[in-house]
User: Fold this.
Amino acid sequence: MAKVTDTVAALAGPIAAEQGCTLWDVEYVKEAGTWFLRVFIDKEGGVSINDCEAVSRPLSDALDVADPIEGSYTLEVGSAGIDRVLKKPEHFQRFLGSEVEVRLYRAREGRKDYVGLLSAYENGAVTLDIDGAPVLFDKKDVAQVRLYVRI
Assistant:
């Protein structure tokens, strides 16, 4: 049986495309006793609340028909965000040269967070350019990679 997120992605991708958006990611998580189905979309120039609504309504209908989830859940459609998490190879390829934050499972040299320019991504391994030097992070050590936004 397919994972819930894969099934929802198959439904959401074409709906997002019809609205001029792309599907960034799908999460199905339980928080404080409630299940949330989160669909993240992206669009050149940014995602508006109208884009989210335009994807949410037909997706909700498609989910009612396909019924891939037992029990109740809350559907949320939103922007991938300016500090979006990078998960898929195409995410990393798109943002090569961008500033990212790598968060590790365990501290390395006394710290868990590293910020630098994304210079390479290969088979889950991430290389950052930090102060002009390449720093490699193995896939097994990386908890999360997200775009870094300076305020």
